Amino acid sequence: MTHVFPVTVYYEDTDMGGVVYHANYLKFIERARSDWVRRLGIDQNALRDAGTVFVIHRIEADFLAPARLDDLLEVRTRPVGATPARLVLEQQVWRGETCLFKARATLAAMSAQGRPRRLPSELAQFRETNGGNP
C-alpha cells in the first residue's frame, strides 16, 4: 500500500541557486506522512487529546538528485514494518521517473510524558502484515 502525495516546489523551498534546500525534503515527507495518517482515518488531534502523539525516533535519508524551483514532485510513502509502539515507513521523493530523495522513518507512539504507547489499531495492522519487523 503506497500513498502518493503531490508537492510543488516553491521559491521558499529553494536556496539562492533555485535548488531545494536539504531540510525541506524533511518537510515534504512530514506532510506526506500526515496526509497518509489522515487518509487512514486517524484524527491526530483526537489522538493527542486522548494522550498519544507520534514522534520521530529515527530517520535515515539519502539525497540522490536535486529538485528545483517549480518542479512537480511526488512523495511516496509505504509502511515496511512495525512493533507494538513503533512504525517504520519508507518514503521517496520522485520527479517523474527520477528518485531524488529517499528516507526510512521510524515513528514512535508516545504519551505526553514521553512514555511509549501502543500504536492505534489502524496502524497496528502493519505489524501483522509485516511480521512485526521494522
Characterization of the model:
With 134 residues, this protein is α+β, with helices and mostly antiparallel strands. It has helices spanning 22-39, 44-49, 121-129, and strands spanning 3-8, 53-63, 72-82, 86-95, 98-110. Strand 4 (86-95) and strand 5 (98-110) form a beta hairpin. The longest helix is centred in the N-terminal third of the chain and has 18 residues, at 22-39. The radius of gyration is 16 Å and the shape is elongated.
Describe how the helices and strands are arranged.
Elements: E1 3-8, H1 22-39, H2 44-49, E2 53-63, E3 72-82, E4 86-95, E5 98-110, H3 121-129
Antiparallel strand pairs: 1-3, 2-5, 3-4, 4-5
Q: Could you provide a short overview of the structure?
A:
With 134 residues, the chain is α+β, with helices and mostly antiparallel strands. The chain is built from three helices and five strands, in the order E-H-H-E-E-E-E-H. The radius of gyration is 16 Å and the shape is elongated.
List keywords for this structure.
134 residues, alpha+beta, 3 helices, 5 strands
The residue ranges in which pLDDT falls below 50 over 5 or more consecutive positions are 130-134
Largest sheet: 5 strands, antiparallel
Rg over CA atoms, rounded to whole Å, is 16 Å
Strand content: 35-45%
Envelope shape:
elongated
Counting DSSP H or I runs of 4 or more residues, the number of helices is 3
Summing up helix and strand content along with how strands pair, one would put the structural category as alpha+beta
The sequence of SSEs as H and E is EHHEEEEH
Strands of the widest sheet, in order across it, are 1-3-4-5-2
Indicate the mean pLDDT: 92
Helix content: 10-25%
Distance between the termini: 16 Å
How many runs of DSSP E, i.e. beta strands?
Answer: 5
